[in-house]
Batch of 2 targets.
Target 1
Amino acid sequence: MELILETLGLAESAKLLSLSPPGWGANLLRGLANSLKIASGAFGFGLLIGLFGAYGKLYGGPVLRDLLAIYTTVIRAVPELVLILILYYVGTDLINQASSAMGYGRVEISGIVAGIWVLGIVQGAYSIEVLRGAILAVPPGQIEAARAFGMPPLMTMWRVTIPAMMSFATPGLANLWLIATKDTALLAIVGFSELTLETRQAASSTRAYFTFFLAAGGLYLMVTLCSGAVFGRIEKWARRGQPSLREDRG
Amino acid sequence: MPTAASADPLPEPDTRAEAIHVEDLHKSFGSLEVLKGVSLKAKKGDVVAIIGGSGSGKSTMLRCINFLETPSSGRIVIDGEEVKVNADGSPADRRQIERIRTRLAMVFQQFNLWTHRTLLENIIEVPVYVLKVPRAEAIAQAKVLLDRVGLGDKIETFPAFLSGGQQQRGAIARALAVDPNVMLFDEPTSALDPELVGEVLTVIRDLAAEGRTMLLVTHEMKFAREVANHVVYLFEGRIEEQGPPAEVFGNPQSQRLKQFLSSVS
């Protein structure tokens, strides 16, 4: 192993990326773990916003519909980097003002919670549209059958609408998840030590920019590949009961 | 309005309970008035066939009975219980209408089996989740029902892999699984290939023979004549003529019904 690295001239890189100091590998993995925590938290939070938002847009009153339209339009119009700056500083500022108004001092806000909140708000706007489209694609007869048999609205949503829309929503949601993993890199700008910031620190300390950014790129690629496999399984499950187009064409 | 029923000699007093009572039902979609005051009574064990041309309002009437469509005005009484409505005609008490709907099972033109569930899961869905029947009991009952409609070997199959006739028989089994007081059939054979109509009609005929109360919107005149004990002919949102099938089909009074019958036979 070492001989191969030696002949390829990669011994130096391997040393830099090693998991134990003086290698920076552990830092990169810690950054990756933080990125994944934020991405999954934000994706989940966004999904929650998306589900309620989609229902609000489809069945809500005019005021709720207008508010949701403003939310999705504004969030999707403003560049994510700008949104992150706004939401991060506005969010922390509001919390601090509230806390000092109630007589407490400044609050230390956990980077992970802040990251989830900021990216979750962004993800929510896109989720609303993905899920709204998916709900609209469910044949009305499916929901009508549930109503005709006396199913209450929430049960209809949980037992009929959500499972029936999953096959329409999965591709869009897989996109959103991948965007979430990569958007975590934008949090570097507010000093949150996710993968990109860890990488930059390692790179600038050692001057081995190429090595570290290539390694980070590799890690992001791994995340994408694993996600692809997971979403492939989810999609297969969501499409159960639907004839496969490919098999039909033989 | 001439109705064949009035010409009937009075039969023995009928002591059967009233299953459905619709009174002066109106329904408009925007400015289009689809139902212009329809009244209908069905007693327990009655099989009422509702016939009429396209756009006559027959499906709308059926869908108003379980409030899939909100009637514009009128009273609907199911098993002696009047559906409470708001000023705009929508159900006032969600729980009441849900409870009533579980006693009115509907069979749709497009089957509407839940595509993401197997046939067995489709049948047990409402008993288990709405009526809170123990799962094992619901499964045992579902298997009996599926055997009865001739789908005992298809319980693990998803609806998309069944023929239209099989799906509709499955949908009938789903309706039977709630042990309904009244079954509402909304053109159950209209979406089927001609050679599949027979198998579905056979199942419905059996149900009629065992005394199920049914409202049946249909285009199958021969079948309506055979299974129904009361036939209602709708024309442009009004009941043009009604009575026993022998009268309505054998001796139609109104010109429109005569025309309709000659055009469909």
Target 2
Amino acid sequence: MDEKDFQEMSVQLEQEANLREKLKDEVLKLEQKSRSMQGTMNKIHATPTAQLPKIISTVKPVVESCKDDTRAIAFLVPPNNYWRWKQMWSQAVQGVVFTLALCKFLEDGTLITLPEVSQVLGVEADWKDRFTIATEDYLHGIISLVNELSRLAVNAVTLGDFDAPFRISVFVKDLFAGFSLLNLKNDGLRRRFDSLKYDVKRIEEVVYDVSLRKLNTPTTGGDETMS
Amino acid sequence: MMAAVQSMPSTSRDVIMGAFNGYREELDEYYDRREALTKISRDITSLSKKCIFLLHRLVTDPSNKPGHEREVSVNAAKKGYESLGQIKGMFEGISEHLQGNDFWKFQRTISPGLQEFIEAYGFAHYLEHNTLLPYAEVQAYLSTDSGQPYFPLPYSDYLLGISDLTGELMRYAISAITTRGGRARARELCDFVRDCRASFEAFAPQIRGMDHKQKTTTNSLRKIEDATYAMSIREHEFGASPDRLDALVSQYMSGYGQDRGWEGGGRGSRSDEQDEE
């Protein structure tokens, strides 16, 4: 038994454990911001459509400050070790993506793209072997967006915005069509994608309820410009 | 109304479809590569297991001549190395998918095969040298002729792989104990596994899964200890010389000898073997 061999290994594993602790601290900061932003955004379900910009504007500074955390993580991770540690911040990143996507949809009715997310979070291209937004995490965030929008369709109607379900319906159907293009494996993403149809169905029901009673603005064609 | 909604001009849809087409390409490439590597990892696992069985067969072959244990072990190790050559080729083949940042992307995919390989290689190494396979030697084996590693060997896979080796050594010790000269071998194995267990203990908190392996190692160690204890009790009980006891054991074992390919039966065979000493 070569004791020196084991000692060397032990020293290096110790260093890795230290790195893990440091990363944990940074990830915790991001996680807390992610949670607090989601908490703020939860207010959209009880806020009239006209006042949504105010909520979004309170989230913006927090988004901006996430840049510090992504940078800190990127500088901790050793070169070529992105995939080794990525699991630690996947969930936090998914939450941030969700918030960004929700803000973007409420602002202009469109989908935030992956490059846009990276840009907003200050992720630099040459970090790609240390920190980047994984496509999977981005897609998880977008699925959360759809889950959230099916709730919003219901709650907007409660608050008297009868056109919101129509805007949401079009958008979510586009997203569903997008997800249908993917050849997903039997993993978490696949399971969550499978649940999307219930969200789509729920939104359809709201649209049906509203249109049956002719509560929406008659010129439905103009819905998209009303957000 | 619904129809009106659906027929709305939707440039946003085109943007979304374009983006998702890109995501599909990326995910497809990842899934395809992962699937290919999973298959190779499974093949490596099964070849490694075959190598381990081969080594067991060679070292516990009843036709091995007593007194030549060292030679038998070394020859078995050589055959083991030969059969591992194919696995080396497989690792070389997948190394292009494991460069740079991609290694950790697929580490978990190849980890099972890699650990099983280390177990087999560690067994062969033990038979040849009576020592623990060093980390550096595995990394050197998994490198090109010019010394360029196929991929960086993680400590975790190395330690988890050689930790599994203790189970094989237990099996070896238990089957060796009933062969001539096997009790000394079992004692050696017992000491070795005990040392392994002590050395690995420091890594239990640092490496996920090591704690569980340590429990298995402890169980294996116990089995070897109990077996060597039982043998030692009998040695004293009979007050017999090791040779005499060897003879007793093989006499006892020869009762079960037919299916293991032992020649002759009972007393005759025993006295033959004793004559050779």
